[in-house]
Specification:
Length: 115
């Protein structure tokens, strides 16, 4: 069993090619008893973005706050609080903050996607 609050979980700045103004928090995963999966929270500052990339594993996303764009397989989709997305393995994707406030979203991936 695991109970905590997002404010108590370390925000790790993302420093990789193609990333700007992004932090990541690993909220729940194998260390908390959820074997095989990881729920993460990403925060993008105004103008921030994740890299445009692909990988073999799928993931699901839920936008908590802010406004932005999800680039997915050649199309841009506006996202705002309540937006959901399923991104299959192999799909090129990128999140971009297009608003003035922080864009925050949940991302759930198989454990292999959080290494």
């Amino acid at each position: 069993m695991f109970v905590s609050h997002v404010s108590k979980i370390e925000k790790i700045p993302m420093n990789a090619p193609g990333v700007s103004g992004a932090t990541r928090q690993s909220l729940i995963g194998p260390a908390q008893g959820w074997e095989g999966w990881v729920m993460r929270q990403f925060s993008l500052s105004s103008g921030g973005h994740t890299p445009r990339h692909t990988h073999s594993w799928p993931h699901i996303n839920y936008v908590l706050s802010g406004e932005g764009v999800l680039f997915l397989d050649g199309q841009e989709h506006k996202v705002a609080p309540g937006s959901v997305a399923y991104i299959p393995g192999g799909a090129e994707h990128q999140f971009m903050n297009k608003g003035d406030q922080e864009l925050t979203f949940i991302c759930i991936v198989p454990e292999e996607g959080d290494k």
